[in-house]
Amino acid sequence: MITLATPGSRRAVALAFAFAILATAVSFAPASASAAIKLESFEYQTTEQNGSALLRAGAHPDQTVVSFKFEKDSLGRAVESPKDIAVDLPPGSVGSPASLPTCTNGQLAFDACPPDTQVGIVSLGVRGAHVVLPVYNLLAPPGILAQFGFHAQTVVIHLTATVHSLPQYGVTITTRQTVQVLPLDEIVNTFWGVPAAPGHDEDRGMCTFVPHGSGCSISAEAEEVAFLTNPSACSSSSLADARVNSWLEPQIIAEGIAGNLGEAGEPLGVVGCAVPDFSPSIEVKPSTEVADSPAGLHVDLHLPQNDDPHQPAEAQLKDATLLLPEGLTVNSASAAGLGACSPAEVGLLSPVGEAKAEFDESSSTCPDSAKLGSVKVVTPLLKQPLEGSMYLAEPHRNPFGSLLGLYAIIEDPLTGVIIKIAGKAEPDPRTGRLSVSFPDAPQLPFEDFDVELLKGSRAALKTPLTCGSNTTESSLVPWTAPEGPERHPADTFKIAAAPGGGSCPTSGDGAPNSPVLTAGTVNPAAGAYSPFRLKFTRADGTQPIQGLEATLPLGLLGRLAGIPYCPDAALAAAASRSGQEELASPSCPAASRVGSVSVGAGAGPTPLYVGGEAYLAGPYKGAPLSLAIVTPAVAGPFDLGTVVVRTALDVDPETTRIHAVSDPIPTILQGIPLDIRSVSVNLDRPDFTLNPTDCEAQSVGATTLSSFGQSATLSTPFAVGGCNALGFRPRLKLSLGGQTRRTGNPAVKAVLTAPEGGANIASTTVILPRSEFIDQSHVGNPCTRVQFAAEACPAKSVLGTAKAWSPLLDRPLTGPVYFRSNGGERKLPDIVADLHGQIHVVLVGFIDSKKVGREGSRVRTRFASVPDAPVSRFELKLKGGKRGLIENSRNLCRARPRASVQMNGQNGRIADSEPRVQTRCKAAKSRGKKSAGK
Questions:
Q1: Phi, psi at residue 523, to the nearest 5°?
Q2: Buried b vs exposed e over 311-349: b needs ≥16 C-beta within 10 Å?
Q3: Which among 89, 23, 72 has a CA at the least distance from the CA of 185?
Q4: Of 246, 325, 312, whose CA–CA distance to 282 is shortest?
Q5: Cα 687 to Cα 529: distance, rounded to the nearest angstrom
Q6: What is the Cα–Cα distance from 352 to 332, expressed in whole angstroms?
Q7: How many CB atoms lie under 10 A from the CB of residue 775?
Q8: Residue 513 and residue 542 in contact, taking contact as beta carbons nearer than 8 Å
Q9: Which pLDDT score, from 0 to 100, does residue 752 have?
Q10: Does residue 16 sit in helix, strand or coil?
Q11: Is 776 buried (19+), middle (13-18) or exposed (0-12) by CB count in 10 A?
Q12: CA distances (Å), 237 to each of 91, 421, 440, 442, in order?
């Protein structure tokens, strides 16, 4: 090794002499007329020590040579001097300046860069004369990935390294404002693959000015580590692109393409893709070990890098797919307040839905509301990690057209690196299990790719319901594929605790099935209209609800009058629409609305609440009425369509108690588990829900069915007050017509009226006058209960007709009155009014005889259990004549018969009366006319 006493001054003298030679070379002729710069040739080569092309995947070249020759005029002078030069390296070709020491710009300006910072040489040529200068690895300023430089006389020339994105991510080396003093006709940049290798000692520092073999040798005295690395992919382009302009015509760009060429000039591709190692590992851990809870997620993809110049580099990752464990699913609660990044905000250039992602090189403007977590990349290219963010892509308007799209965006102000990677999360449509993939990752080396999804109550994921081990599987494909095999590393985490403590189930059906029911009217005043609210809730760690049934208290009814049904066709249309379409223009008519619904979804203390509307609908699954719950499933940026759940409203014919049975509640939509935590129904239509007039304590009963097939029976107290303040003034009129003679069978008509606003009737007993008794000869053809249930009663069992008017209904209920057998429970068959209309009501009366004082036995009819429902008018007509049930024991025109009536109110009040039974006797009418005349 030759040691020079004053290397700085000696080098300055040598450099000045070299530039004097170049100046002499161009002094023989005047400057040429200005013209656009043109490339005579552009070459790019990666070579071994013997100078042959190095094409092996992942190998470390001895050197990479980039050379330019510019067009000359007829006198052999350069037509134009280059100003800016940019070279896009072949995709996957990289340098690792972080592995080398750096020189400062100040040191370079004084030719004082340490030998171990030199990374190559540059040769500047003018008409056959050349000067060779050392190129150093410089301390890059903020905003620059890496910077190299050389000192040309009094000018420091920088070569900056940046990352470009089109057509693939790669590295661009740019030289701006080259030497203007001389019209350069040739530039040759040589970067060393292993800068500290002894083979470069004769070209280090001042030795560049001394011919080889003169004995000049400067050692780097540093570790021999690889600086340059070949691409991993045998399938990608091995060509470099160049762009050059001139000082006088900077707007005109000369372009060139070059690479390692074969004998026929064809570009030679990378070979030997089976050689590089590919040994990735993964680490996947949620932020909590508590089951059924919101969770962030830590993901680390690790690729062990090596800078051994004698071994190929680790193959780079191309496609990454993680299959998360069953149960680690999207947390529905995360959609509250969540935003999404649009194609314009992320700078997407490729068409939506083509599964190809090309981005511009500008900074993204994705909103903070779309941020799902952070990204950190440790790369051998840099001493410090690159940091960025993970964003949710706008659903269906992303490179994959998918519901769940992702953007990993790295924007590092320190290095100026901007990298955007598109990914997608595909949930299993039945289970919600997530497959997360990032295809076509940049062919850039990294050691660790860390993702930290945000934790907290709005975390994007939810842990499994059960405790135990959970394994994340992966499929990782290198750029060396298909020669280089893909790998399938896995990682396991444990869920070890139940929410709130206690034992943690190891299977879903072992989880508690303990939903809670609350229900009641807002104004619990007897006989008053009031909104009714019913709510089911379940805690974290309990079995999901899939089915609901509810039994309302006696007397809690709905006013159907004036409410049209939402048509089945409208409900079918709603189910086929997007949520936004349904919100903008509801399918059901507004007049059908009877209330609203709120559904809470997602794990943790802050579920997402989605609202819907409850509409009155017509008969459904055998029930006379139904409630249609129409919920636009719109949450944050997601639109999962419109969910329509019908609830059959069975009305008990004898009590009018309502039993509501819902269709199965969806548990998953488009692969997103709904994870319903509460269902709240608020029947708030004015004057719709009517309270009972019986103040006895009751309850709202319910049954829920879990997604594991287990049922839970629930009950919550219900009562109204103020029954004593209700009036009770019903009136009953009786008349006998037709055959009035003794042994005749008169027709019977009973008309009951009741003023609105009072207590409803609980029971009614009517004792006929002593002049009437049962005609046993007409009791022989009762309808059986089986026939009655099948609506197949024989004609001879029909005694008459009945009609009931109620303020709750648009039209009266009507139907036949039957003689119906009771299985021997009573001596005589029952008298049953079978009323049909919007609902079906059956009134059962018991017929027997009652001894009344000295009068003896009289015919008694008892309706012992009347529904707690308002009836403004009720008419009962029984046939007379041959099919009449009642027989006269005397001539009615010679008697003034009276009945005995006792009616009990639902509030306990009694209304007794002895109304005169009207008859249609001519004598009576004559007397009536005379009396009227008086």
A1: -115, 95
A2: ebbbbbbbbbbbbbbbbbbbbbbbbbebbbbbbebbbbe
A3: 72
A4: 325
A5: 5
A6: 25
A7: 16
A8: yes
A9: 97
A10: helix
A11: exposed
A12: 7, 20, 15, 14
Distances (CA, A) of 109 to 3, 121, 203: 21, 16, 19
Query: pTM, whole model, 2 decimals?
Result: 0.88
Please say whether the beta carbons of 109 and 78 come within 8 A.
Answer: no
Average pLDDT along the chain, 934 residues, taken 10 residues at a time:
38 49 44 69 92 91 94 82 92 91 94 95 88 94 93 88 88 87 86 94 90 88 91 85 91 90 82 94 98 97 92 95 97 96 96 91 96 96 93 97 97 93 96 96 94 96 97 97 95 95 92 96 97 97 95 98 98 97 97 98 95 97 97 96 98 97 96 96 97 97 96 97 95 91 91 95 94 82 93 93 97 96 90 96 92 77 96 95 86 86 96 91 50 38
Task: Measure the CA dihedral 819/820/823/826, to 10°.
Answer: -40
Q: How far apart are CA 387 and CA 140, in angstroms?
A: 18
Q: What is d(CA 398, CA 341) in angstroms, rounded to the nearest whole number? A: 9
What distance lies between CA 59 and its chain's CA centroid?
A: 45
| Rounded Cα–Cα distance for residues 445 and 332 (Å) | 36
User: Which of 633, 635, 636, 705 shows the shortest CA–CA distance to 669?
Assistant: 633
Report d(CA 719, CA 714) in Å as an integer. 17
Q: Quick one: which of 444, 89, 61, 48 has its CA closest to 228?
A: 61
Q: Are strands 731-738 and 918-919 parallel, antiparallel or unpaired?
A: parallel
Give residue 27's pLDDT. 44
* CA–CA distance, 99 with 105 (Å, rounded to integer): 19
Report how far residue 902's alpha carbon sits from residue 198's, in angstroms, rounded to the nearest whole number. 121
Alpha-carbon gap, residue 44 to 257, rounded angstroms = 8
- Nearest CA to 121 out of 107, 108, 109, 134 is that of 134
